[in-house]
C-alpha cells in the first residue's frame, strides 16, 4: 500500500481550465491540513484558495511531496512541467501523480529520481505483489460504498461518512481504492490497476483486522451491474467483507454514464445484489442507507426526492454534499454489534 508523505505542495501548472484541477480541489477540500500551498505557473486559471508558494518557500515550510493536482488533456506533460518537477525533486521533494501516463516513463524524471533518491508515486499503477484472498472473517467493522453506476458519489460519500464518524469520536479509517482517494488521504491503492485474481486479496490487506469498535470506511468503485467494471466491484466487495454498505445513486440518472445502451441499476437491485454476493464472505451484511446525489435538483426538489426514496426503501437517505450524512451514521451506530 502506498503511503505518501505530507505536507503537500499542489502543482496546478499553467492550466487554462479550472475544472481540470479536480484532483487538487479534492485534496484542498478533504485534507486541507495536508496541503501547505499551491504552485501555479503564469497564466494558470485554477485557484484552490491555498497559499501560493514557490519551491524555495515550500521547502522552508517543510513540504515533502509535490502532487500533480491537474489533469492533462491528451495525457502528455508539457515540457515546462517536466522542468518544474525535476526542480522539485532536486529541491528534496517526492512527486505524486494520478495521471494515466506514469511519470516514471518520462526519461528526465526517472533519471532525476534515481540521482536524487526521491520517490515518484504513480498511484494508478499496481504496487504489488498482492496476496490471493482467503475470505476468512476479520475483526473490526467495515463499511463499503457501492453504486448504481460509476461517478455517482462513492468516494465523496465514503469521505463524508468517515468525517462524520471521526466527529463523533468513533475510531475510523478511510480506505482509498482510487487514484484521487489515494492522493487525498496519502495512502491506499488504485484497485483497478490490480490484476483481477488479486483484487479481493489486495482489499483484505488494505482493510485488515482491527479492534472490534473500529470502522474501516472503504471507497467503492464501479457498479455490480456495469458491463465494463463489475469485475472490479465484485472483487472489492469480497475483499472488503463489509458489515454494512451504503448505496450511492444519482437521482434521475437513467442510463449508465458512457454506456447508453445500458440502464443504471435500481437501488433495490443493487441492495439485493450486494447482499446476495456479499454474504459469501459476510453473513450479516446489511444496507445502512442511501447516498443520493441531487446535484441536478433545486434544494426543495432535493428534499422531496430524499423523502420519496426514504419512504420507498425504509432506509436513511442523505445527500452528503447538501445535507451531510448524519442520519446514516445514526442508524449505523445504533445497530453496531
Automatic annotation (TrEMBL):
It comes from Cohaesibacter gelatinilyticus. Residues 132-328 form the D-glutamate N-acetyltransferase-like C-terminal domain. Gene3D superfamilies: NAD(P)-binding Rossmann-like Domain, P-loop containing nucleotide triphosphate hydrolases. Residues 48-124 form the D-glutamate N-acetyltransferase-like N-terminal domain. PANTHER family: DUF1611 DOMAIN-CONTAINING PROTEIN (PTHR40690:SF1), GLL3100 PROTEIN (PTHR40690). It comes from the Bacteria. This is Uncharacterized conserved protein, NAD-dependent epimerase/dehydratase family.
